[in-house]
Amino acid sequence: MPPGAPAFAPRFGPGPGRPAARRRPAGPYRRLFDIPGTRAFTAGNLLARLPMGMFGVSAVVMIAGAYGSYALAGSVTAAGLAVTALVAPWTARLVDRYGQARIAVPAAALAVLGQLALVVCVWREAPAWTLFAAYAATATCPNTGGMSRARWAHLYRDDPAALHTANSFEQAVDELCFMLGPVLAAFLCSALFPQAGTLGGAFLLLTGVLVFAAQRATEPPPAPRTASGAPLRAPGMRPLLAVFLATGAVFGSMEVVTLAFVDGPAAGAVLALQAAGSCAAGLVYGRVRRSAGLVVCLAAMTVLMSLPLLAAAGTGAVWAVAAALLVAGMATAPTMVTGMTRVQKLTPGGRANEGMTLAVTALLGGIAAGSASGGWTVEHLGPVAGYGVPVCAAALALALAAATAGRGRAPGSASGHAGGRA
Question: Which segments cross the bilayer (predicted)?
């Protein structure tokens, strides 16, 4: 033993003839948050997105309980959805032009005031038209999911693999909020009072947007009005929005048909399984180094969406349909991630928020159309036949995507190096 050496050498660790221990490389999701500020804006975004799954359920419970009419409650929420589809792209355009923090905070504050006005109107049992006016005021709610994706696209514009992982993570967050939001709203409305879901959602929205907007270091720089053309005019964007419209019809029809098929308190849990399958698939998809094509994803969705139809027609058992929905949901996240990546590629530079909001607007329109189609089919042909509607909608989205494959690549797009195939 050399002089000065310790009496007991460490059992582990580097020593004579022993190589230094290698640190295990961080996974792709952990590497996403190496940039300072990403954890904080993600936390704020989670708070702000959770109410998106709360407001609709809370409004229906609150209005139906006070006015005794689910038709009125459904009409109010549908009208609010229509106004949101008109207002959201304009809000996103302002976000791109003046910056996320300057626009998102006042827009969220206006939306919260609309929710509070709705609570007061329902509490005072005001005339029905006031409910429509109050809920329409909530249409200024900023698309925090799109703003978050715009930040990732800005931060990892030169790293295709990281951007693919970020988009997958965002889709998993969407599914998580879809699962937890309605459950939290229903709990608050039943355990406390009917207005509690709306009030809780308003608090989470404003708090989340304030935290999100405070992270200025990760915010994309605002773009002047003349920086680039409108995303809607970008080559290939309109056919892609048609694909999103048909894809939204898959989600809207599946929800209505499943509610009718289960017809009970277990319906929410059965629907949550579809979101759970999508969430899990999204996290796995984010670890894949190269994304699949949009046509491939939609082909998988068309095949998997036939499973609930087969389960309902073959067994008629709720458990079988629930298992089929879990598997069918696994096609959702890869399809949405690939589609959103395509939107990022086609969107001109400096207009990322507007481009992704257009995609969300198309989805909302498809959800509304799918809900109406699924409801009509259930009423006239029964719930089992209703499961054919999402299959047809997925097949339509596949046909549209195949017909426009490879069409249009906007130069100077917001994420022209996003990587992957779309």
Answer: 46-64, 71-91, 103-123, 199-218, 239-261, 267-285, 292-311, 317-337, 358-378, 384-403
Are residues 308 and 325 in contact, defined by beta-carbon separation less than 8 angstroms? yes
**pLDDT digits over 362-384, tens only?**
887 787 788 778 878 887 888 88
Q: What is d(CA 261, CA 263) in angstroms, rounded to the nearest whole number? A: 6
Instruction: Report the CATH superfamily, name and number, of domain 231-416.
Output: MFS general substrate transporter like domains (1.20.1250.20)
Residue written as tokens 């409305």? 189
Could you tell me the pLDDT band of residue 1, with boundaries at 50, 70 and 90?
very low
Burial (CB count <10 Å: 0-12, 13-18, 19+), residue 406: exposed
Which class is domain 41-222? mainly alpha
Q: What are the CA-CA distances from residue 77 to residues 57, 119, 168, 356, 368 (Å)?
A: 9, 14, 29, 23, 11
Residues 243-254: pLDDT tens digits?
Answer: 989 998 898 788
| pTM for this model (two decimals) | 0.71
Domain boundaries, the chain: 41-222, 231-416
**8 Å CB contact between 104 and 148:** no
Q: Which amino acid is at 53?
A: G
Task: Pick the closest to residue 35 from 145, 209, 156 (CA basis).
Answer: 156
CA dihedral 327, 331, 333, 337 (to 10 degrees): 170
Distance CA 61, CA 69 (A): 10
Shortest CA distance to 243 belongs to which of 407, 401, 410?
Answer: 401
Angle at 184 between CA 324 and CA 209, to 5 degrees: 110
Type of residue numbered 389: V
